[in-house]
Task: structure prediction
Amino acid sequence: MKFTILFSTLFLCQFVFSQNQITSVKQDQQVVEKQLSSDEQKSKPSQVVKTNQEWTLESLDKYILALEVKKNWVKNNPEENQKAIESGWFEKIDTSINNARLKREAILQKQN
Result:
C-alpha cells in the first residue's frame, strides 16, 4: 500500500512539473518570436515600431545594460563570437542598443 501511494505521488509530481516546463518553454518561445519580429521591424528605418510596452528610463537602462552584457559575453566566447560574426549578430545587437539609446534620449527630451 505504501509503495502504491509513493509511486502515485511521484508520478503526479513528475506530471505537474513537466506541464510547468512545457508552459515555460512555450512562453519563452513566444517571447523570442516577439523579439525576432521586433528586431526585423527595427531594421527597417522608414517603419515606425509600435509596442504595448511603455518604456521608462529605468527599463531602457536595464535593457541597454543587458544587451551590452550579452554582447560582451559573446565577444569573450570564441565559438559564439565566430557564429555571431558569420550571422551578422553584432550589427543587429548594435542596432538594438542604438535604438534603445534613441528612445532613452527621446524620453529625456520630453521630460525637459
In short: The chain has a mean pLDDT of 75. The chain has two domains: 1-33, 55-112. Residues 55-112 form one domain.
